[in-house]
Write the structure tokens for this entry.
Amino acid sequence: MFLSTYQIEESLEHLKPIHPFYMITFLVCKRGKLPVGRETEYGINRAEKGFLDQYYKPAKDSVWYYRVSRVGRKRQRWVDSKYASSASQSTRTRGDLSKAFIHQKNTNLWGWQPDYVETLRSKLQKGKTKRIPAFHLAIWLYREHDWPPQTTAEDITDKLFSEFNITENEKRELFDVSVPDSLDPGLLFQNTKVSWEELRKITGLPPDVPREEGGALSLLKLEGVGPVKELHFEPAERVNLITGDNGLGKTFLLECAWWALSGTWTGSPAYPYDPKVEEPKITFQISGELGIPEEVTSSYNWESQDWSLPEGGPPIPGLLIYARIDGAFAVWDPAKDYWKFKPGMGIASPGPLFFTREDIWNGFRIEVGGETKFLSNGLIADWVNWQRSSEAYPFETLRKVLRRLSPPDLDRGDLGALEPGDPVRIPGDSRLIPTIRHSYGQVPLVYASAGVRRIVAMAYLIVWAWKEHKEQSQLIRKKPQRRMVVLVDEMEAHLHPQWQRRILPALLDVKEDLESDLKVQFLVTTHSPLVTASMEPRFDAKRDKIFHLDLVRSGLFDGEVILEEPDFIPYGPVDAWLRSDIFEMRHARSLEAEQAIEDAKRLQLKDEDKVTVEEVQEVSERLVKYLAADDRFWPRWTFFAEKHGVEL
């Protein structure tokens, strides 16, 4: 039997407040049987290095040691191979803990002072944990030990005391020898030894191990930046709907999410305009298949007017596509050679591809070292080339994606499926121009409606980005990513209600046209109840979330924007969505009808003897003018009006 991954993770939490001296140097000296009251020759640096190699190097191919303790640098998870002769040696020879030793400077002579236990105990008393949790320490040290059947928690602790020659006095003064009350014996062991693949989900990766690739956003925290004083955004792995009124920060949230994933801004960096916040921060996590990594925090650099990042970094994200509300797009591809990822330093290069609306159609190029690099031929050229190619891919994929993203074909005068037609020439342009077939004929794409052009551009970018990623991955001898993150600002822009109801579910299925095992995370802002209603049949609480930015007022010009994470409730009819807490409308009617109904309700709540016929007549006339004949409010009002002498 082997100690379980669950218990190892649990025990590591209890070891964070313990100074590393007690979990390394103290045990090394005890195992080396350092004498009390006198010195002896002892190569402590070599002994510590051997101890670290044995117990604190979970990644055997790495030269870094896992830092179990979080005393001091709380965010530091790993220490390098010089730890025994640098940081640990400094602790042994300086400060309070050095007083526990008898040691002649610049020699290998070491021993315990007669009162060493009292010295070590006094240092422990100053910490958050007053005793070393023996059980949890043993769990970490013996995570690879093969235990016999019927082993108990006490047996594990006893092995620690025996192997490291812990005296009764040391147990009494320095250790918590109890078994945790919360211990579940059924979760203590597992049949196989914990593997590095399992353990690195807990520890993260050491700096000399290549960053994991193919991550998605799992956390974004903003402090003192943007319209929200403190924002905590934990997106789900698949669909994330972000709602809220204009000006509350939906687009800003997408921009910050894009920066966290790509290391670049699509425009100006986020600016912390709240003077009360001394140190604005952006914290984020990018999670890959191996689990959620450590948070990365960026502080605002007032001198450079930008956001700085610490050393080390999260997993490299998968393919990123960002559809902005202004018709522009951004694409970030970890396989491309025009951006070089430096862990913890973002992107050092010309940056991701930022396509203007014109770039999408006509192509994109950059100058690198005096050389022109063609990064995209553009939709017009690619479409025609793909269509006229003898190979089915990628044009057939584009055709499938277009059909999937098309408005519904209900044979009721709707636009119908977006089907490619034959390329044509148009006046003043020497190129062949792609066309879309409609029920009324072929239309050159450059003449198509704004809604059609946006969806066509999105379909093309998805197919183009995935095609380029696969080809570039092959060139650099790497497997293509199996993760994509798609950010869409105002999903419903330019779309007819019939199309709004279809577009998001269609995007969810687009991955089937690319690769069946592709995982896609969507971050989508919307003002449309049709978009939210369209998710009712597809919403999975384990993989999807809805968020709502709201303004909490305490005065006319004194309010606070908050990000809420309400439950996704299937409201059914769209007008019910409009009246929900997501869209916050009192009535799904005109403003005039809403005001008339509210006035009618106020009359109904007045004392009977204070309601006049004239008031009832005036409100009734407005209701007749602004409400439909079959409005559901009529039965309630008709009875009240007739009771007060007004015939309708």
Q: What stands out?
A: The first strand starts at residue 2 and ends at 3. The domain at 215-363+483-490+520-578 is CATH 3.40.50 (Rossmann fold).
